[in-house]
Amino acid sequence: MSEASAPVDSFARNQLPPREQWPVMLFERPELHYPPRLNCAVELLDKTVAAGRGARRAIVTPDETWSYAELLAKSNRIARVLSEDLGLVPGNRVLLRAANNAMLAACWLAVVKAGGIAVTTMPLLRARELAAVIDKAEVRLALCDERLSEELTAAQGQAATLERIVSFGGPSELERLLADKPSGFQAADTAAEDTCLIAFTSGTTGGPKGTMHFHRDVLAICDSFARAVLKPRADDLFCGSPPLGFTFGLGGLLLFPLRVGAATLLLEQAAPELLLDSIARFGASVLFTAPTGYRAMLDKLADHDTSSLRRCVSAGETLPKATFEAWRAATGGAIIDGIGSTELLHIFISAADEAIRPGATGLPVPGYEARVLDDEGQPVPPGTVGRLAVRGPTGCRYLGGDRQTTYVADGWNLTGDAYRMDEEGYFWFQARTDDMIISAGYNIAGPEVEEALLAHAAVRECAVVAAPDRLRGNIVKAFVALRPDVAGNDALIEELQDFVKRRIAPYKYPRAIEFIDALPKTGTGKLQRFKLRQMAAERTAGRQAKAG
Predict the structure, then answer these.
(1) What is the pLDDT of residues 281-297, one digit of tens each?
(2) Structural domain spans, the chain
(3) pTM, whole model, 2 decimals?
């Protein structure tokens, strides 16, 4: 195991949890053997140009295309500005704020190449949320698309450490500073175990949590999931909806294509119809989006040419079997499902091609191990529901705080998901650990009920949570968004309940159904179940108050 270098700014090293609290890290596979000194930006970009492939396209947008040589020159100039004009020293954190575009990608590579630590944020974050990230990571410098500067400027007034915001896009400050910079830059001599990015979770409970990842980790996700499951090609064009501030998007829309010399299509707006338009226009071959994205695109597929797609990847929420089957029926292609986490950086259980079992998440990605544990931390037999535990070449290292030992135990990452493993070693998602509904002594997995509801023609999307009940402890409650031409009424509630009873065990049916215009989601499209649980509890309390 490599030793970390001695960056001038030792904040990240000092904020790492004690090594004995890290999960066990696995590097047995030859492709996961990395040298002690490593800068991942050099591996991803410089080496492609050095190999004579600089003329290949690297980044495509609706307005322009950058070659690998052009991306290298731009990122080198930004790195020079960071080091020579903005005072960045290795170990400094730099907040990045922009929609998915070429300059954001170049800034990310420049920060990492200069030895800095990239803190890429979601474009939809507001000032208060940005301030929390800035304070936790002690960020002093930010590079921000000038179109998104208002909230960051407001956050600067709330955060204690942010000293300077440099804007980019159009005739802005960063472009002026770049104007006279040469295109060469000597990358910082970083260690494989130096932190190069801090990724923050969406913070749906307890505020945002920063997860620290090394240069080595960035390459490990490329050389595990991408290499073994996705199997990208140099002629691929990647596209998708997740922001680069979301590690699902960072991997799928930047790291994975660069690792194999492929190209990425970066879209600032990637609503379902816009995404479909772009796939047809540019001939994209690899698609990354969430299950809700695939579901939303299904009704629009007939009007768009998606024949260029050869790989479709889903993560962020469990992929309902009904959505998988509908997509395959409409396109002829299978969706590669996967589970990952910000703590482990990217996908660690998945399956592709003939290994797919519809409805199952898949098998441990080569390089990772997974098991299902009981409440005492002991492995359970196949077919038994328990807590998912994972370990591999990446793992959880929280930024400060006391949360490390709640996620890592006995060397395993405990993801907070309830799973069962079958006799063939496939992992089947049941629920988030706190989403398992216990009603009258029965354990009911909400996603199973959701999948049954989604098979009904009237249902556009739905989510199931526990609602407090005096007699049963909890009942299953479904929040249902209907298709535009369907009216919600008592007759439809009864029809949906009977429909579910016919598809799964009757005790699992939703005893309460509430129609809702749209489900609450994060900026990455991930369902915010905690908001629905709050709504369910408030509705119950309101009814009880009226009843006296």
Answers:
(1) 999 999 999 888 898 89
(2) 440-547
(3) 0.87
